[in-house]
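Review form for a predicted model. The reviewer records the input and the model, then writes brief findings.
Reviewer: anonymous (R2)
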Amino acid sequence: MLDRPTYTERAFALAQSGSAGSLKAIRQQLKAEGYSEAGQLSGTSIRGQLIRLIAANKVAP
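Model under review:
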């Protein structure tokens, strides 16, 4: 059994890393990593937190 972060934990890690420029990019990365919980980022609170993290940690091109 793999000991990997949950869908939501991984989404927050991606947002904090600065490598994701949008929620869509996070969803695409999660799908590429084999996560299938597509509806997990639909809550207003979670989306708002992720958007703020993305903005605060955006890596300059």
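Findings: The chain is about 55% helix and 0% strand.
Further findings: The chain has a mean pLDDT of 88.
Recommendation: see findings above.
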